[in-house]
Amino acid sequence: MTDEESSAPDVLSQTDVGLARVLEDLIDVLITRGVIQFTDLPLVAQLKLLERRETRANLGDRLDLFSMDGDGGLI
Fold it and tell me: Cα angle vertex 20, ends 74, 35, to 5°?
C-alpha cells in the first residue's frame, strides 16, 4: 500500500466533522421551514441531535467569546 492509499481514509475522516455540522445545520433549516418535524427523525437521531445541541450550548456558555452591550449589539 502506498502512502497516498493509506492517507485516503485520513482525508475522509478529517472532513467528517465538517460534514456532521453541515448536516446538523441542514436538519435545523428543514425543521425551521416546516419541511420535516423533529419527531419525524428516528429516536436515536433525535437523541444525538439533542446531545450535540446541549454540548454546543454548554461550550458556548463557557467560552462566551462575544459579549453583548446594553443595546443588544456586539462589543
Answer: 85
